[in-house]
Amino acid sequence: MTDLRGLLRLPVMAAPMFLVSGPELVIAAARSGIIGAFPTQNCRTADELDAWLSTISAALGDGDQSLPWAVNLVTHRTNVRLADDLALVAKYRPPVVVTALGSPKPALETVHSYGGVVIADVADLTMARKAAVAGADGLACISAGAGGHTGALSPFAFTAAVREFFDGLLVIGGGISDGYGVAGAIAAGADLVYMGTSFLASEESRAVADYKQMVVDSGIDDLIVSAGITGTPASWLRPSLLAHGIDLDTLDVPQERDYRAGGDAVRRWKDLWAAGQGLGAVTDIRRVADIVDTLAEQYQQAAHRLTTSRSLEGTTHA
Ligand SMILES: Cc1cc2nc3c(=O)[nH]c(=O)nc-3n(C[C@H](O)[C@H](O)[C@H](O)COP(=O)(O)O)c2cc1C
User: Keywords assigned by UniProt (predicted)?
Assistant: First the structure.
């Protein structure tokens, strides 16, 4: 199985984002020394997915020689394209497959057959235990502060709890937006950090210009976590909800809503924009390579701080 950490400049994955991550972001991330990823759902058809995968594998190399990249696959039974998408995974052999909204099981045989790694996206300990038992090589633990669908656990508490029963690849995400936080997560026991919001306003992101600008202009107080839009707790940019006349006072009250994926109604993700608590660190629209350079500098500074901080040994407490 691929040793991912050895291939990376920084232990980070640019997390898959619906309607935001495409081949440009994946390729830029991998060339910058982190893992790039996209959800297969960003392609409307299997043919389009075939074209994206072909572009990415041509740019990043094939098989063992490939720079690291990942696809995010919905393994829930409602995904009617799962078999087609898995066939394309077998064809293009992404080094990492992240499974979401279902068991990692359907992807294991295919991905292991070419030496790839399966990471299951989990948002609580019950999901994490189930995915570990199912045989996932890694767990992407989505913690409080994440953009899009979010978890509720602190990343530190989540890491510690998962480490009690899982010694595979532990990926932690949620509100981690600078290299200092990456170093903190690794020091706490994670192997990789999952970062979505930090790349939302990158030049290579497919988010529309107004969305990117809103991420740049907004801070942590501009977020609202609610299950009222998709049925699952997610972190949204409050100004984008207000712009579409959504009443925040009744957002959490169960009611019939029409946030369609298409058509004339307000479309969640497309019109209603998500972001996580790390958005305060996004102050400009930048190239992925420049974002990763900054992360790497901060990571080095944090590592230095850890090794040079005044030793507590011998300190006496009054
Ligand atoms: C706009 C947006 C769209 C997202 N779409 C998906 C998705 O399609 N599939 C998925 O597994 N996670 C999705 N996520 C979650 C990210 O993969 C990741 O868990 C999260 O961004 C990590 O937290 P951070 O945003 O604080 O860095 C999305 C996040 C955002 C901000």
Answer: Flavoprotein, FMN, Monooxygenase, Oxidoreductase
Radius of gyration of the chain (CA): 19
Domain count, the chain: 1
Taking only the tens place, the pLDDT of each residue in 232-262 is 899 999 999 999 888 888 887 766 666 655 4
Contacts of 249 (CB under 8 A, 6+ apart): none
Within a domain: residue 144?
Answer: yes
- In the block, which residue shows the tokens 């087609």? 84
Q: Is the CB of 178 under 6 A from ligand 1?
A: no
- Ligand 1 neighbour 181 (Cβ under 6 A): no
Is the minimum distance from the CB of 214 to ligand 1 under 6 angstroms? no
Q: Contact, 153 vs 172, CB < 8 A? A: no
CATH classification of the domain holding 153: 3.20.20.70
CA-CA distance, 94 to 66, in Å (whole number)? Answer: 8
Q: Residue range 293-312: average pLDDT?
A: 88
Quick check: CB of 195 below 6 Å from ligand 1?
Answer: yes
Which of 34, 40, 101, 149 to probe ligand 1 with, by most ligand atoms within 8 A of CB? Answer: 149
pLDDT confidence tier of residue 265, bands split at 50, 70 and 90: low
Per-residue pLDDT at 317? 53
CB 197 within 8 A of CB 147: yes
Residue 28 inside a domain? The answer is yes
pLDDT of residue 318: 46
Tell me the pLDDT tens digit for each residue of 268-282.
888 899 999 999 999
The 8-class DSSP code of residue 259 comes to -
270, part of any domain: no
Mean of all residue pLDDT scores within the chain: 92
In a domain, 214, yes or no: no
Could you list the residue range(s) of the whole structural domain that residue 98 is in?
Answer: 4-206+276-308
